[in-house]
Amino acid sequence: MNNTKGRLEVICGSMFSGKTEELMRRLGRAEYAKQNVLTIKHSIDNRKSAATILSHNGQERLAFSIDNNKENIAKILELANKNIQVIGIDEIQFFPIEIIDVIVKLIDIGKTVIVAGLDLDFKGEPFGITPLIMAIADSVLKLKAICVVCGKDSHHTQRIVNGVPAKYDDPIILVGAKECYEARCRNCFAIDKKAQLITPAKKYTEQNI
């Protein structure tokens, strides 16, 4: 019996940094090596189709759409049957914490799991479960975009509403692309309140103690 465990690879960064393109590249590479691949996306990302993941440069890939329902999250284990070697998950920041248990189970039975997602939200704070996923990963690739203001490396995603930076208290999730967001460096990033980096840490501590 093969007890070899799999691995978890994380691709993160701001919007327009090439996360989904890199995810597609790795999944395509696995398929070239004749490995069977399962692609998962969050149902909230419906920019073009419920059945594809879409990169900002126009690449597409067929994917299963999953919402935050716990039963549907658990079904990923069924989709990743014994014939599947590699599982790719896009927009990991939108998924609930329950998906971490699913990912760990997949790794324990020898699967390679590759996830891509935003590490910071539009406020400049850690986004969703991404920090937790990064902590348990075998490898983490943090990609950079280019700041549209000054041309330096960008780590932040600037949300723009009616031509001006969004308010700190605006809703966290707003699905969109260039019409709503820009890549910004730390100096050019703007928000009407200082990012509260301790807030997500306190939230996760309270949830997991």
Describe this protein's structure.
It is globular and about 50 Å long. The chain has two domains: 7-143, P-loop containing nucleotide triphosphate hydrolases (Rossmann fold, 3-Layer(aba) Sandwich), CATH 3.40.50.300; 146-194, Wheat Germ Agglutinin (Isolectin 2), domain 1 (2-Layer Sandwich), CATH 3.30.60. The protein is α/β, with parallel strands linked by helices and 209 residues long. Helices cover 25% and strands 26% of the residues. The protein has helices at residues 19-32, 70-79, 98-108, 130-136, 198-208, and strands at 7-13, 37-42, 52-54, 60-62, 64-66, 86-89, 112-118, 139-143, 145-146, 153-154, 156-161, 164-165, 181-184. The protein has five helices and 13 strands.
At a glance:
The chain has helices at residues 19-32, 70-79, 98-108, 130-136, 198-208, and strands at residues 7-13, 37-42, 52-54, 60-62, 64-66, 86-89, 112-118, 139-143, 145-146, 153-154, 156-161, 164-165, 181-184. It is α/β, with parallel strands linked by helices.
